[in-house]
Design a protein that fits this description.
Layout (H helix, E strand, L loop, with lengths): L9 H20 L10 H9 L6 H14 L6
């Protein structure tokens, strides 16, 4: 069965962006990149105002940020 998701409101689009950044951060922690442009880790650091350099620690911190704001289920 095909399930599609339509992000039509600004809040839904913002939530999708945050989750896409999480996917990019996961890839970067494995040594891959999501795009050739700005790294997801740089965007996440700027978004959260953190200076965490270790990508796995940054991913854990970002996931707890998403859970606390209701974008990710526990």
């Amino acid at each position: 069965m095909n399930q599609s998701l339509v992000a039509s409101t600004p809040d839904q689009i913002f939530a999708y962006r945050l989750l896409a950044l999480r996917a990019g951060l996961k890839l970067e922690s494995l040594g891959m990149t999501l795009s050739r442009k700005e790294k997801a880790s740089k965007i996440v650091r700027h978004l959260m105002s953190t200076r965490t350099r270790n990508l796995k620690d940054l991913l854990a911190e970002y996931e707890s940020f998403l859970r606390s704001n209701g974008f990710l289920q526990a």
